[in-house]
Amino acid sequence: MYKVFIYNKAVFIGFPYPKTAKTYQHLEVLDVQKIFNILKNDDCEGLIIGNPNWSLNEIENCWKQFCKHFTPIIAAGGVVFNQDNAILLIYRLQKWDLPKGKLENGEVIEECAIREVEEECNVNNLKITNSLPNTYHCYELKNGDWALKTTYWFTMKTNFTGKLIPQTEEGIEKVEWVKISDLQPYIDNTYPSLVDILEELKTTN
Q: What are the distances in angstroms from CA 45 to CA 9, 25, 30, 76?
C-alpha cells in the first residue's frame, strides 16, 4: 500500500488502508485526471485506489503508472534526537516541519539527509541510527507541471549542545528542540504527510 498526498489530502494506492480512511472516496482503477478532479472538491477527505483483491504486483504496477504522470524529485531528512531525547523541528511557511532537502548530484541519500539537517539547523555530530518510512507528496511546479517528491527519512542522534541557527535563506524562521511529551501542538500545525511520523514518535519514545 502506498500513501501519497495531493492538495494535502491522502491518496491510498492498494490495500489495506487505515480505518480512518473509511469515509474516503474510492476508485477501482487509476485515472490521474479523475483523482485531481475529486480531490479539488472541498467535501472530499481523501481517496482510495484499487480493490481488496489486488495482488502485490497489481499494487506495484498501479504505483509505477501513477508515478509516470509526475516529475520525480528526491529528498531526504532527519528526525534528530539530542541527549535529552528531544527532537529537532523547524518553523517555515507558518508550519512546523522536519529538516529535509533535495538530493544533490553525486550524493547518496544518507549524505543528503545529514547535510540538510546541518545546513538548515546548524547542528553537527549527527549519526544516523535507523531508517523510517518514506513520505510522498505532489505539488505544482512553476512551469505548471506536477512533481512527486519522495522523501527518505532517518532517525539521527547528536550530542550537539550549541546554538541552533535557522537557515533563513531557505525561509526557516525558527529551530527548536521539542520534547516528545510536548509534541501535540506541533503536530496540530504540521503537514499531513508528517503526522504519521510524529505520532509514531509519541508511542515509541
A: 6, 8, 18, 27
